[in-house]
Amino acid sequence: MPNDHLAVQDFTDRSGQQAAPRHYGEALLAAARDDARIVALTADLTGPTETDLMRDAMPERFYQVGISEANMAGMAGGMARCGHIPFIHTFSVFATRRSYDQIAMQLAYPGLNAKIVGFIPGIDTLLGVSHQAIDDIALMRALPRMRVLEPAPGQVAHAVREALAYEGPVYLRLARKSGGNTASTYPEPVDGITEIRQGGDGLLLACGLMVPIAQQAAEQLAAQGIEVGVAAVTTLKPMSAKVLALAKATPVVVTVENHSIIGGLGTAVAELLAEEGVCVNFERVGLRDTFAYGGTTPYLMKTFGMDADAVVEAVLRQRRRFQAGASNAAKPRDSGNK
Amino acid sequence: MPHASQPPRAPFPATRDPAVLADIARYLRKQVVRMVARTGQGYVQQGLGAADIFTTLYFSELNLKPQEPAWEDRDRFILSTAHNTAIFYATLAARGLIDLALLDTYCEDGSPLEINASERLGPMIEATCGSLGQGLSVGAGMAAALGRAGRPGRVYVVLGDGELQEGQVWEAAMAAGNWRLDNLCLVIDANDMQVEGHVDQVQANEPLAAKWEAFGWRTQDIDGNDIAAIQAALRRARDERGQPHCIIARTLAGKGAPTLEGILGHNLRLPADIAARALDELDMQEA
């Protein structure tokens, strides 16, 4: 017998907390108002990808494709070929792994003006290993013509504009709620970078919700008299030449990412520095070649060595090596690539 | 029209005359055999089987401007089974969409006529497929976009029957059916053939028509080597609105050259002597 006393609305959160802000949804809607070519597609995740704003404001430009990410990527290709600018939405892990071939062949290869928007970056979820996008940056970075953006808190609207400024495929990696200091917002990047803090003892390069964690680590280090710079890298591909300039001016570089240390920000920075002959004491903080599991974000960051304490340790370790006159090339660190 | 003693002068104009279309199909079959015979490679059985589908689509159905391949209001054609290129390129050349002389470079290093069609050839390749199962999604996206924009262009997609084993096909089938994309027409080239043999031995797919109907498609099951039947089915698909259309076109591998007919070989090599015999058989049909 159907329940006629209660409705879904009766089961919503009554804690009185304000709903998460929908900066992305608002930015997409604003962009869509400016450009009639923009359409939004979602694979049964309208609310969590904030596309309900688009759905409600311009339903004729919103497509619910159901739980079919591969088809969504292919349809976006067809739409882009007919003059639309499709934004496709789902969780990061499904947006990349589940439809990789379709993105490669139907969006990246033809270089179409389509945007792939993934939410739940890295291990930032209770939902566990199936929903954790630990390799999405690596996958998207490997595709020719694809650009990869991961804004820090407060930079989402800029990232949407940045994605639209490039007439080609872009992967936009977004978080709804930051696992770090949710109050933090950062100024808009210039040339793919926001310099947040200066310091001559080292450099932290972070992306996404790891930016506030890196900033927290820098504050902890400052309390010990060690001044490190912090920069948010919002354009992960192509990597900004500014990264090179910043790295040349410091003895220690530590990358901080909510992703596997293989193929993401740390890899991209290492590639750049190595090819440009910049020799620094270098370490990647991120998921160290392991799968994770579900949990609250602070718990997971601590457990998997991705919290501010882990960043502080990495900096101290590399400073010691620098002070001992060692370089990465001369003496590989034992725990480097477990 | 093409004749054995008088080399045909392609490109040919569009026509609705089934007898002329039959002549063009025979010409295209000979082109397929010649193209594949050059190196022995290039999907001869599929090409001969699908010649009537390609002929009818390109010469009788698709609204195209050969001089302006990217014309905005053209009908779109997507070959999801992108390896079936001998017949595809032969058709494009015969319709004036690519240079006839290019056919002599088929599958040669550096040629844009790769064994799998790629859009680096030009705008007449509407999407780069070949990774099977993707073409219908792209076609559905095109149909949705053209429909929303009020454009008259229709979208035609050719899938193979073996390709229907890809799950993405059914994702696209569901979306197009739900959205009633009646400017989308799917032609399934049902030649019973995939890499490891007969489709039914690998993964049986019947009842095919019932499956597409269940997904919301108006479905016709026809002889895919009967040009008049293909014409009629395409006309019905164009005229009847409200649903996407699926035409299951039953084709015979190697059709037109008795030496090759019915041999289910996905990646058949074509030795010169057998190619010569097949060409003789096709010539004899003209007499």
Topology:
The complex is a heterodimer of chains A (338) and B (287).
Chain A: H1 23-34, E1 38-42, H2 52-57, E2 62-64, H3 69-81, E3 85-91, H4 92-96, H5 100-108, E4 115-119, H6 136-141, E5 147-149, H7 156-165, E6 170-174, E7 193-200, E8 202-206, H8 210-223, E9 228-233, E10 235-237, H9 241-248, E11 252-260, H10 265-275, E12 281-287, H11 297-303, H12 308-323
Parallel strand pairs in A: 1-2, 1-3, 3-4, 4-6, 5-6, 8-9, 8-11, 11-12
Antiparallel strand pairs in A: 5-10, 7-9
Helix pairs in contact in A: 1-7, 3-5, 8-12
Chain B: H1 18-39, H2 44-61, E1 76-79, H3 85-94, H4 135-149, E2 155-160, H5 167-178, E3 184-190, E4 193-194, E5 197-198, H6 199-203, H7 208-214, E6 218-223, H8 227-239, E7 245-250, H9 272-286
Parallel strand pairs in B: 1-2, 2-3, 3-7, 6-7
Antiparallel strand pairs in B: 4-5
Helix pairs in contact in B: 1-2, 1-3, 1-9, 2-3, 2-8, 4-5
Features:
heterodimer; A: 338 residues; alpha/beta; Rossmann fold; 2 domains; seven-stranded mixed β-sheet; five-stranded mixed β-sheet; 12 helices; 12 strands; 35% helix; 20% strand; B: 287 residues; five-stranded parallel β-sheet; two-stranded antiparallel sheet; 9 helices; 41% helix
Strand content of chain B: 5-15%
Instruction: Supply the CATH superfamily name of the largest domain in chain A.
Output: Thiamin diphosphate (ThDP)-binding fold, Pyr/PP domains
Q: What is the H/E order of chain B?
A: HHEHHEHEEEHHEHEH
- Count of separate DSSP helical elements of chain B: 9
What integer value in Å does the Rg of chain A equal? 20 Å
**CATH architecture type of chain B:** 3-Layer(aba) Sandwich
Oligomer: heterodimer
Name of the top-level CATH class of the largest domain in chain A = Alpha Beta
Percentage of residues assigned to helices of chain A: 25-40%
Ends apart, CA distance between termini of chain B: 12 Å
H and E string of chain A:
HEHEHEHHEHEHEEEHEEHEHEHH
Question: What are the segments of chain A in which pLDDT stays under 50 over at least 5 consecutive residues?
Answer: 329-338
Main sheet of chain B, how many strands, which sense, barrel? 5 strands, parallel
**Might you state the CATH topology name of the largest domain in chain A?**
Rossmann fold
What distance separates the N and C termini of chain A? 56 Å
Largest sheet strand order of chain B: 1-2-3-7-6
* Number of separate helices of chain A: 12
User: Which two chains have the most extensive interface, and how many residues on each?
Assistant: A-B, 29 and 31 residues
